Amino acid sequence: MAFEMVGVVGLGTMGAGIAEVFARAGIQVAGVEADEQALARGRAHLERSTGRALDKGKLTPAEREEILARVTLTTSRADLRDADLVIEAIPERMDVKAELFAELDRLCKPSTILATNTSSLPVTALAAATGRPDRVVGMHFFNPAPVMGLVEVVGTVVTDPGVRAEVGDLAVRLGKTPVEVDDRAGFVVNRLLLPYLNHAVTLLDHGVAGRDDIDNAMKLGVGLPMGPFHLLDLIGLDTAYEIMNVLFDESRSDRHVPSPLLRSYVAAGLLGRKSGRGFYGDPGDGPQEKAPARTVHVVGSRELADRLEAAGFKDTEDADVVLQVGGSTPVSGRTVRVQLKGQVAELATSVLTEQEAVLGARDLLKIAGYTPVPCKDRAGLVVDALLYCHLNDAVRMYESGYASIEDIDAAMRLGCGYVEGPFELLESIGLAKVRDGLRDLHAEWRSPSSAPAPLLDKLVTAGLNRFPRP
Ligand SMILES: NC(=O)c1ccc[n+]([C@@H]2O[C@H](COP(=O)([O-])OP(=O)(O)OC[C@H]3O[C@@H](n4cnc5c(N)ncnc54)[C@H](O)[C@@H]3O)[C@@H](O)[C@H]2O)c1
Q: What range(s) does the 3-hydroxyacyl-CoA dehydrogenase C-terminal domain occupy (predicted)?
């Protein structure tokens, strides 16, 4: 199909960006909004976004004019009659979207492909609202659409495979990487990302570590572009909670139980950036108290001992603070177990650890050039607990036949800005290390979802450190 003209219904956060993406690829766009006021907002959105690209030198004034001229703005759905494809980006409500799909089906020519940008609703149910279910797909863009390189192309059991392929080719023409997936809640990215974010909220709720410490651990210790609480505030806590509910309704897995803490934030109207306050933005946010350590004893890391000695600390056995790198739960109140992960030093405290020792250890590790992350002495501490379960989810997703290793890696790189996809990360950490970490987590929490995925276990047993790729 040539895709000479497309329709975009709803020109909010996503729709305006999607209209811009089509227009930039030289395609005529009819943008439809509910009323004149919303249409003006959509126009302003397009002008702002292309204006920014102009300021950054990514578009010339002439190119910007051409892009804007390709978009016709209207409040009449009838203007979509001759579109080759119509994509909707109206609010995430099944009844409203189903009504729109039924009307588009009546209005549009028989060959028009109808697409939805839904993040969590079943595409199959939208297809069923039309008389052309074989020509209905999900085309899931990421925010901001002009910047993010991924499009999840969602086919249902009734989608014509040719239509799916054409939409995939269209995504390539738009300069995006398409990932073909079936109609399962959350598709690839949200199905992997949201349970990990929800898990971070659970650790906070259980008091395993604090908000800033968990964010630091995942950003600096793993190299993710953003910590989970910053990301949740950006996504919107209500949206995150809703997606967790959709995932749980489909899977009934313990991994998908929405955190009660997330629910109480939503109930309190603290939705993140959109409401001005979520996990961040509390006026009570302030610096933590300080208690400088005087003497230190380091066990298990020559490098840490050297760094502290170079900073002028004398290593003595009867020190105020003992930093034990690795090993098992310490049995002295002065000893803090330390796990070094890149720039991050996790400080595990047990029921015996004295508060003075924790504060002293935190300062010492800062002086030694690490970002300290105080946490409770639980299996996996913060980084491994969050990361290994997240990676395990990716293995289970592949194992269930939902998506290929390449697609899952590409989706997480392009959709979430990861430097490495989950399988690349698994291989660079070492499959055996992750499998063993998951076994420890499972032994401690006994949650079925933390048991190593059977494929991971089998590969390690076979002595392999690589997933099978064609
Ligand atoms: N925001 C994101 O990060 C994101 C990312 C991927 C997918 N999505 C999905 O995209 C869709 C839209 O989300 P959004 O964040 O852009 O919402 P939004 O609220 O910013 O925009 C929705 C727009 O639809 C318009 N609208 C409402 N009813 C309409 C109708 N009957 N006809 C025409 N226009 C109508 C509204 O005026 C508004 O401009 C949702 O399905 C959402 O799940 C959102």
A: 186-280, 380-463
Distance of CA 382 to the CA centre of its chain: 17
458's CB contacts (< 8 A; 6+ apart) are none
**Catalytic residue (choose from 45, 140, 297, 442):** 140
Contact 153, 138 (CB under 8 A): yes
Mean pLDDT, consecutive 10-residue stretches, the chain (470 aa), reads 95 96 98 97 96 95 97 97 98 96 98 97 97 98 94 98 98 97 96 98 97 97 96 95 96 96 96 93 59 81 93 89 90 92 93 90 94 94 97 97 96 96 98 98 95 98 94
pLDDT at residue 291, rounded to an integer: 53
CATH architecture of 296-376: 3-Layer(aba) Sandwich (3.40)
- CATH topology for 194-275? N-(1-d-carboxylethyl)-l-norvaline Dehydrogenase; domain 2 (1.10.1040)
4 in catalytic set: no
Among protein residues, the one whose CA lies closest to atom 6 of ligand 1: 142
pLDDT of 465 = 97
In this structure, the number of other CB atoms found within 10 A of the CB of residue 289 comes to 7
- Residue whose CA is at the smallest distance from ligand 1 atom 38: 12
CB 126 within 8 A of CB 87: no
CATH topology identical between 5-182 and 296-376: yes
Is residue 356 part of the annotated active site? The answer reads no
**Which pLDDT score is estimated for 283?**
63
CA-to-CA distance for 323 and 337, rounded, in angstroms? Answer: 6
- Side by side, which strands form the sheet with 371-376? 296-299, 321-325, 335-341, 344-349, 371-376
119 is catalytic: yes
How many Å separate Cα 37 from the centre of its chain? 32
CATH class of 5-182: alpha beta
- So what's the pLDDT on residue 267? 95
Q: Output the pLDDT for position 332.
A: 87
* 89 Cα–ligand 1 center, Å: 4
118 CA to centre of ligand 1 in angstroms: 9
- Closest atom, ligand 1, to C-alpha of 96: 31
The SS3 assignment for 259 reads coil
Give me the catalytic one of 190, 198, 216, 259: 190
Whole-number Cα distances in Å, 21 to 142, 183, 228, 232, 351: 12, 24, 28, 26, 55
